[in-house]
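Dear Dr. H.,

I hope your travels went smoothly. While you were away I took the liberty of generating a structure for the chain from your last submission, since the lab meeting agenda had it listed for discussion. I wanted you to have the full record in hand beforehand rather than looking at slides cold. The sequence, exactly as received, is reproduced here:
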Amino acid sequence: RQSRPGARTDMASLSNLELQVLNLQGEMLWTRHVLQMMLPGDGTWQRPAKSCKHLMLSHPSKTDGPYYIDPNGGDADDCFKVVCNMTLGGWTILPGRYATQHTTLLTQHGRQSTSVVN
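The corresponding predicted structure, in token form, is as follows:
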């Protein structure tokens, strides 16, 4: 079936086979999404890791540096950027704004507070 570019497809004009193909495409996209969610995060904004420790264990080639983590493992929309120290075993260094009273606060030359958690 030929249609001009940009033309809207009328669902009533689609054959049963075409509807089945569209349904299968949707199921394949959903399955791909579910499988990607099962993979360990790689520290990017799109696929944040649960923690630096998890990132180090699932991706041993990762080096010290900035990564995105999502500790609650829910939606990547609430992930945030941290610095991971892989050399010391996957330590997570949080910017001062994420620091809580339950973590050890460090001051680097009096400029920025950070929290270090593992």
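Two observations you may find useful: Confidence is low (pLDDT under 50) at residues 101-115. The helical segments are 16-38, 52-58.

With kind regards,
E. W.
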